[in-house]
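Practice problem: predict the structure.
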Amino acid sequence: HTSLTLSILLPVTVAVSASLGDLVGSYFKRVAGVKDSGVFLPGHGGFIDRLDSYLLSSIVLVLVLIAVQTF
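Answer:
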């Protein structure tokens, strides 16, 4: 039962939180008036822009795993 729940819950929560992480990061950049947040990856928004979705989705992933006590 737990493996079925995890196999449905994890991909959905990670996909949604990754999209939200990217949107929130873009929102903060827009509010701050910053087009490019770095110079190492010109045209790609910098390293932080590449990691926005990973930052939030990794936190959500850990919280879900803790919630189902399989961490």
